[in-house]
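Subject: for your reference before the review

Hello V.,

The reviewers asked for a structural picture of the protein, and I figured it would be easier to keep everything in one thread rather than splitting it across files. Below is the amino acid sequence we used in the manuscript, unchanged from the supplementary table.
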Amino acid sequence: MSATPALNTEDHAILLAVNRYPGLTPLKGPENDAQAFRAWLVSPQGGAVPEQQVTSIFSSDHPAPVDPYDERPAIKDFHRALDRLTLDAQRQFKTRAGRRLYLFLAGHGFTAGAIKNDPALFTAEAQAYDAVHIAAPRYATRMADAGLFDEIVLVMDCCQDFFFTKEVMNPTWTPPARNLSNQVKVFQAFGAPRGQAAYEEAVAEGGPVHGNFSRIWCEALASADADDEGWVTSDTVRRRALRLWKDSGLQDKTGNVPPIDLPSEDIRFYRKGSTPQTPAAIRLPPTNAIPRMEPVGSTARTTAIRTGVRATKDALGAGSAGASLPTAVFGGPPETPAGSVAPVVLRRSEVRIETQDDLAHIEVLDKHLHTVATGVGDLIVKLPAGRYTARFRLGDALLEEPFQVLSAPLVVRCPQRLRFSSPVPLPDTATTHEYQSGPADHLIQQARLADATPRTPGQLLVFVRASQHAPGGRDADVDEAMTRLTLRDAQHQALPLDQDDRDAPSGWRFLRASPWEGVHWLSWRDSDALEARSLEIPVHVSDGQTTQVFVDCELRDTLRLPGEGRVRLRLAEASIVSWPHARLPALQAPEMRLIDSLRSRLASPLVGDATALVDKAVGLAAVSPQAALYAIGLCLRQGNVDWHQVLGIARAALAQAAAQAAPMSAAALKAPFAYRPGPPDLFALVAIAEKQLGQPISIALPLSEAPQMAFVWDLAEAWPTGELLELALCRLETHLRVSGGLQATFVRPNGWQLPDEVSLQMATPLAAPEDWAALVPALKRLGPQMTPLQGVIRGRIIAQVTEHGRFDAAQLDLQGRIDAVDVRHALNGLYQLTSETAPPSVTVEETVLG
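And here is what came back from the structure prediction:
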């Protein structure tokens, strides 16, 4: 008879379950779930945690109060339990509180914002209008940073449904920041992915109610395979849980896969004996599951569960009937009989991995989480027998599908479309919105010009929305913020915008304009205060083309800088795409998702091998020049940039734009500052690629219009100061460029405007050349109030005065490269910025620059 395993005396657990919500819909399963998990925790064959080290915080522990704000468990109960574990007798945080901490929370939940897995559990005192909550992943992050435990296991069975008028708040409970996160293993498992609901139900009629995920979680802990050393680990439990979720029909029924995040190194939960535990059969849940989500108003909000669930067998591990190829199953590879010698040759089986997104990144991981193959869209690979995981990524969306290779061919499919975040209200994305997608598509279709010609004036469609907007609600801040959006021409003069405000209370605004060809500036002022700033992005408009701009908003109730409003338009993450008038696609058209998938892939820090992506993007370039820009951006993300490829893509896209445009004379195309068909980004990229390849620059420079993409500005600014393209871009910048995001974004002080052309031509210098020597100390003190061109000129002035004792405008080496008028205006601006602090001996003269 085997000895009873020793208890893990350094392990602790906190279980918080909320059944009773006076201000929300009550639940029946959370306490049952916590009790089931507790049974495994204290079992010597399970977690082996001493019973006195498991803290349970349940609704049933407290009488029902009269005032909902007196309901328990409250956030103070959670903090009190944490304090008991982590504080010493002097109420100072311990250096180390234990080996492992289990955190289990069940009840109503929500999420908000753009963080992928950031669920928050409503505590019992929460109301529909007062979202008191515990952001448990953020607590785990803080405890890991403080190094309070070696391992943290966080399990949350609650919804991650979006509630856009709420915000997930950082904990007020703050252990010391010790930067020890890299030494702590953190395992996290959630009952539903971002934007989805979690459900509870009784498996048998009249039986106890359990959360679907909690039931699967406890079953996976008991029945997961052990590794080669007999340990049940975080990896094997995760694999088992996902297999149980799929085989029980819950994946088909809910349409989602619970997110389970593994630590950098496996956590060993417990060691199995020689006799494996037999899993109990999991019955197919009924269709009347109750979502664990907050009610909207006085009635519970329900999410439809997809029907048509395929039949499953009672015994787990059996493949689905009727499949043309065997589906992935768990149950180890065939064992070699005792006394025999295993063959040396590893047989490989063909595995086809399919997704519903042509641009999804596929990564195949072996059981040690090593990458063995990658691809885009679909992947065919030959693998030896064993366990694997197919990881699918698109932008900030990630799904994983475990599978096992035996001896026959296998097809592994991504269970659903990848729901990445997007400023476009596309269907099947994480930020789609029931009150925004329909109106956006309707307005786009109304704007289609079916009888347009290449000379039909271009049009600009701007759809601004707040994807966090509460359906049916009204947010005055959102409506007011959208009214501060304006369109300006190249000289920053306001242009008329037709506004459709019919559904402004639904968190969106539609703007339409028909400006002339060229680059215009979409400008948004962050508040009505005098000291407010404007954020701006350049937008290119061509005759014969409809340019669409989709912008999402961010709602910030806390952590705002002084003077900032609650709503911020996320211009840097805007989606800008142009189409021929007659080919303007519907919102649900495949090319719309493909183009935005490219944007999402480029915005993601993980791109991987871009070869297949570039090929797909180039194929779309014939429809939209934006696809060519995304293709080049992906090329530039590779280790060794193929500048011949960059040059070829840019030239082909410009040729396509020229073919679609009305004929222009050769002289007009070569003339500086003249409009040329095609985004200015492509012209700049041709010049950059030609320079990199040592070829003569064939593009007429300087550019007359500002590029849209941030990476084009980054490339140009990497050139030595004074180079032709760098100075040309300095001339076009309105003020300071903001880093971050795909779109080039600029900050402009409120009220600042470029002078018109007439005043520029009439401007005369305010200081004589010899006066600049006295201004050098003031020039050195200037900061971000300068424009980039002024910054370049300031550097030349300081260098000349330091070397020669005086400033000679004739030696500025800017004349002929950019207009003398612009240089003159920049000098006058510098003088005005420095004159208040300059010595009184400086005189003002009207001397014309040579």
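For the response letter, the relevant points are probably these. The chain has 20 helices and 33 strands. The two ends are 102 Å apart (CA to CA).

Happy to draft the paragraph if you're swamped.

O.
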